[in-house]
């Protein structure tokens, strides 16, 4: 009897099989239980022999059942662990993460450098009125600068003059002066638009305007500020060329070129015989101050407009400005601007 049940227990493959053996052996109607009930019919002598033997047998079967149960549970856990095993040292699948566009990176860098020089940040709308984009900046209706700027005009409402896509960030000069007055030291980065398209021009591009108005700000302060900015931005002193120029909203005016070299589809800053124009600047015209409600007899200062895309080209050695706005991931990855 004992061997029979121990064999069955050993052979049981799962909980259900064990339960079957238990019922057959020590369940209410199990073989051993029935035998125990027969003890009553035995003589005391017989019972003294059979009783302990049956009890011992029952105990032994019960503990074998319990041990087998534990063994089965262990095996099941083992199997599950083996099935769910993960190699955490395996390399992960390649995954692409988003990155910040180079123009945005440069804009942030420019803001940080000027912040160190005490310039705060101002903003203006990209759809601008004729007044802010032109007239207030001393560019009257017939002025050739309007044609030169290849302006995009919006549809006009009724007989009002049509709004324009701002052709430069200079209108922010007027808006900020109107709002905050003088003295002031701000930069205004943002998108500007001109109908123009070649290797160094795109119809949408980015500028950062600078404006510093005080009691005794001079052209020397302008030159120092720009040179300080350029060496901080390029990480080295780069040769610059201040060329006398003309803007209706500054007097005197200067354009600034940076020394560079174009070679093998790459542009390098700080060497070579080429010059790339990167900004316009000058002393704010008294009429502009007046138009913004500032007394030109009391206040004066400088303004500049830097081509953000131009200085980005120079920093990253990119010869064609248009690539910045193609959103071609292969190009962005090639220059390390995307992963
Ligand atoms: N607004 C001029 C341009 O877009 C640049 C400029 C800004 C010049 C401020 C002088 C002063 O060409």
From TrEMBL:
Its main location: cytoplasm. Its cofactor is Mg(2+). One of its GO terms (cellular component) is cytoplasm. SUPFAM superfamilies: Class II aaRS and biotin synthetases, tRNA-binding arm. Keywords: Aminoacyl-tRNA synthetase, ATP-binding, Cytoplasm, Ligase, Magnesium, Metal-binding, Nucleotide-binding, Protein biosynthesis. It is found in: Cytoplasm. Pfam families: Phe_tRNA-synt_N, tRNA-synt_2d. Tetramer of two alpha and two beta subunits. This is Phenylalanine--tRNA ligase alpha subunit.
